[in-house]
């Protein structure tokens, strides 16, 4: 199995020097276990998915934690024993240095609630999404075209083993439905939820319309909102909110929906292979999702929250992504899946710059080609050469 180093390693070490515990959260199979075990190879490792280990932690939480002494341990899938958090609080408040316990969890909706209740101020937090294009390139893995990324996605197992994307995602969805969602009372109709996930995949990169989504799935408006919230807290989708500055124009108020992994979205949408994406109607949305997720990974790997928005007015003018650097003016980014550079790519950015007073040197178009060059209306950069844009995400 090929080991791919993660960009979050450095931040994980920093947090472990400053907090008594560190929590690594993210979607199932995003590489959390591999990350923490490689950074902390000398710590004892326990997996609470194991029935015997889980029973010990549930029946005797004090004894379970006491076995690790002041050196602590790596506890994987910690949300499987919710009561353990209350006992961890007492241990972390006691004697011992920083970085004692390293916690991981894939059910963010359960884990974050427990952290807020019991471990607030005691644990640093890293959100880990699947691999980035940069991490894959640094591992010496060559991907020739972005359609391969769109179809395969970025889950580490797809790059470290010979498993095929169709097989991986079929198993992944079933695991998510049967192991994660069965524990939640909000989802009783798992087949209905799977159909809902597919409808969301068709809407990837679009402004959320809860009423339309609910109607197409045969569920209520409130159920659609609850189910989307579960997908978001599971780390499988993200919402990009509208930018708040309206420049005296009426704005769209609903967020845009993106899957954090393009491969999962492509699988749910029934796309049979990368060649099918060349002229596929979902290609543009998947390409946007690819770039947005790269931006999110860059932020999360530094332990930061997202700083991404989009802008659209009632007249149909839209900028795909607005980056808000800390304390600085916002930066517009358009995303175009076409491989041939075109000045028309900058049309919406030019319109937004006129309203906002932004300048071309702070304007970007990320497109499906390789050329990266400064143009009169902004900077044109290939999808695999995002460094000029990532500089504004620091």
Structure description:
Helix 8 packs across helix 15 (283-300), helix 11 packs across helix 14 and helix 12 (210-217) crosses helix 13. This protein has helices at residues 9-16, 32-39, 51-59, 61-66, 84-92, 108-119, 133-138, 146-152, 157-160, 165-180, 190-202, 210-217, 221-233, 262-268, 283-300, 347-356, 387-390; strands spanning 21-25, 45-47, 73-76, 101-105, 123-127, 206-207, 237-242, 256-259, 308-312, 318-323, 331-336, 364-367, 373-375, 378-382. The protein has 394 residues and is an alpha/beta fold. The strands form two sheets. It has a nine-stranded mixed β-sheet with strand order 6-8-7-9-10-11-12-14-13, sandwiched between helices. Strands 2-3-4-1-5 form a five-stranded parallel β-sheet, sandwiched between helices.
Task: Kindly summarize this structure in a few lines.
With 394 residues, this protein is an alpha/beta fold.
**Describe the biggest sheet?**
9 strands, mixed
- Uncertain segments are none
Assembly form of the protein? single chain
Strand order in the largest sheet:
6-8-7-9-10-11-12-14-13
Q: Report helical residue fraction.
A: 40-55%
* Distance, first to last CA: 32 Å
Strand content: 15-25%
The number of distinct helices, counting runs of at least 4 residues, comes to 17
Global morphology: globular
Mean pLDDT: 91
């Amino acid at each position: 199995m090929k080991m791919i180093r993660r960009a979050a390693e450095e931040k994980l070490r920093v947090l472990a020097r400053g907090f008594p515990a560190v929590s690594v959260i993210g979607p199932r199979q995003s590489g959390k276990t591999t990350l923490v075990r490689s950074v902390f190879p000398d710590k004892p490792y326990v997996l609470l998915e194991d029935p015997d280990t889980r029973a010990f932690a549930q029946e005797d939480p004090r004894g379970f934690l006491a076995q690790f002494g002041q050196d602590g341990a790596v506890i994987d899938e910690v949300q499987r024993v919710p009561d353990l958090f209350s006992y961890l609080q007492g241990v972390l408040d006691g004697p011992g240095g920083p970085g004692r316990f390293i916690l991981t969890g894939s059910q963010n909706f359960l884990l974050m609630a427990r952290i807020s209740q019991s471990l607030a101020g005691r644990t640093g937090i890293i959100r880990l999404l699947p691999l980035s294009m940069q991490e894959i390139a640094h591992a010496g893995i060559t991907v020739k075209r972005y359609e391969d990324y769109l179809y395969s996605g970025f889950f580490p197992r797809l790059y470290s083993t010979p498993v095929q994307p169709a097989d991986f995602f079929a198993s992944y969805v079933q695991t998510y439905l049967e192991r994660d969602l069965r524990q939640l009372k909000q989802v009783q109709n798992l087949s209905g939820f799977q159909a809902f996930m597919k409808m969301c995949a068709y809407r990837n990169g679009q402004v959320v319309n809860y009423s339309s989504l609910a109607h197409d799935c045969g569920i209520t408006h409130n159920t659609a909102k609850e189910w989307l919230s579960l997908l978001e807290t599971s780390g499988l989708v993200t919402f990009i909110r509208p930018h708040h500055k309206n420049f005296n124009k009426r704005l769209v108020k609903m967020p845009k929906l993106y899957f954090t992994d393009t491969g999962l979205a492509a699988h749910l949408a029934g796309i049979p292979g990368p060649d099918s994406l060349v002229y596929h109607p979902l290609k543009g949305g998947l390409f946007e999702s690819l770039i947005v997720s790269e931006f999110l990974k860059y932020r999360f790997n530094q332990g930061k929250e997202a700083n991404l928005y989009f802008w659209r007015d009632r007249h149909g003018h839209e900028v795909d992504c607005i980056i808000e650097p800390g304390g600085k003016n916002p930066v517009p980014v358009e995303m175009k899946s076409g491989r041939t550079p075109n000045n028309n790519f900058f049309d919406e950015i030019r319109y937004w710059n006129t309203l906002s007073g932004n300048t071309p040197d702070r304007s970007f178009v990320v497109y499906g080609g390789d050329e990266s060059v400064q143009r009169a209306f902004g900077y044109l950069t290939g999808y695999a050469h995002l460094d000029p844009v990532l500089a504004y995400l620091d």
